[in-house]
Every structure is written in structure tokens, then in C-alpha cells.
Amino acid sequence: TLAHSLIAAGQAEVVVACGVENMSRLPIGSDAVGKEPTMGKPIARSYFEHYEFASQFEGAERIAEKYNITRTETDAFGLQSQQRA
Fold first, then answer.
1. % of the chain with per-residue pLDDT over 90
2. Are 41 and 51 in contact (CB under 8 A)?
């Protein structure tokens, strides 16, 4: 990121950075698809012929299984993250 680059280059010691994500115009999972003109087109059926459609939950389960991460470990990590925030 720009903030990282500025610090790494010695151009800044402290940088305030942020990011945003705007999901309001994405048709994925929306009831407005096909009804609201600004929502665009739904995912084409051909997409599923080429790519697997897995939820974030399925992806998380697969990663945990692959790297042998337990629920206890993820809970501890989540708690520590919240305590630091």
C-alpha cells in the first residue's frame, strides 16, 4: 500500500490509512437483481460451469482443515483481536 511504501522509503514515520468497500451495487445474493436497473445482471449460469461457488464459511472450513486450525485456536485469536482493538 501507499502507507507501507512511504514508511519503508523513510518518507514518513506515521501514516493514517483506511479503506472502504462498497457492495451496494453488486448483484450477488440480492433480491433486487433483474428488478432494479442499477443492480446490473445476475451471475451468468455459465459461471458455475467453470468455477466452484463456495461460501466464505465453506472456504474457512477448508482452510482450517488444511492447516489443522482448531475452533479453540480461532476463538482465542478472535478474542485477542477484539482485546487489542
1. 48
2. no
